[in-house]
Amino acid sequence: MILIKTEEEIELLRNSNLLVSKTLAEIAGILKPGITTLSLDRHAEEYIRDNKGIPGFLNYKGYPNTLCTSVNSQVVHGIPSDYELKEGDIISIDCGIIYDGYYGDSAYTFAIGEIDDEVAELLRITKESLFKGIEVAIEGKRLGDLGYAIQKHCEDAGLSVVREMVGHGLGKNLHEAPEVPNYGKRGKGIKLKKGMVICIEPMINLGRKEIIQQKDGWTIRTADNKPSAHFEHAVAIDKDRANVLSTFEYIENKMENNMYLHFKI
Ligand code: MF3
Ligand code: CO
Fold it and tell me: Which residues surround ligand 2, an ion (CB under 5 A)?
């Protein structure tokens, strides 16, 4: 069953998603070579609790941390560890929060220092594809239209779309119906209605689309070990244009002042 949210609920969802966006911006402020992914996680947890939020991923189905930190060939659900980031790495930071009973969920992929041109292109196209999806996240369009828009943008650029992992509805639960694939056929799938709230999160690979799960039971990485990128926004479906509940604005402002994040998309 797909829940339709009231205007009030959408404002509550905006509040929790904005806190996620601010948390990701905090991380954007401290990313640098040598920092461990676990220290990013500690920082995020402290910031969230200081702002009266509850980490949304921590203990969710047994997940052990506040952030998912997925480096290079890791696609999503990378578990924070004592791994030290190094120049040339890319890292998807995915954060979920519960605030006032509603979930926020958003992700951004950062480049540490200089990265290869083809990886820079991967980041650029993946982020663009999220916005291609958002463009069709309006009443009357279908989920297949959304998936198609993302898939076309990425495949035209020679990239591949992960199939097994998808976006989702968002509300009082982190994962609600519907599933939101990043591939699809125009005119297929359920019709979007005003008041649906979904997370759109393309996971796009530089090489082949196949993924494998690491032995930790969480981390998903590309089967060919080539890099993967991931961006996520929460959006409320509306009549003429999607109401984007999370934002990259705080993150990108912080990136401006972080000399280690000189690659801007
Ligand atoms: N944004 C991811 C997702 O939606 C993160 C979930 S991590 C988990 O699906 F630990 F909470 F599962
Ligand atoms: Co999500």
Answer: 105, 199
Q: Enumerate residues lining ligand 1, CB below 6 A.
A: 57, 60-61, 63, 68, 77, 94, 96, 105, 107, 168, 174, 232
Ligand 2 centre to CA of 96 (Å) is 8
Give, in degrees to the nearest 5, the angle at Cα 91 between 158 and 98: 115
Which protein residue has the closest C-alpha to ligand 1 atom 3? 167
Expressed in angstroms and rounded, the spacing between residue 62 Cα and the centre of ligand 1 is 11
Question: What separation in Å is there between the alpha carbon of 187 and the centre of ligand 2?
Answer: 24
Task: Select from 121, 265, 147 the least CA-distant residue to 200.
Answer: 147
Query: For the whole prediction, is pTM greater than 0.90?
Result: yes
CA-based Rg of the chain, rounded to a whole angstrom? 17
Distance 57 CA to ligand 1 centre (A): 6
Domain residue extents for the chain: 7-256
Q: What is the pLDDT along the chain (265 residues), one digit of tens a residue?
A: 999 999 999 999 999 999 999 999 999 999 999 999 999 999 999 999 999 999 999 999 999 999 999 999 999 999 999 999 999 999 999 999 999 999 999 999 999 999 999 999 999 999 999 999 999 999 999 999 999 999 999 999 999 999 999 999 999 999 999 999 999 999 999 999 999 999 999 999 999 999 999 999 999 999 999 999 999 999 999 999 999 999 999 999 999 999 999 877 7
Which distant-in-sequence residues (6+ apart) come within 8 Å of 22 by Cβ? 47, 51, 250
Q: Which residues pair with 68 in a beta bridge?
A: 94
- Class assignment of domain 7-256? alpha beta
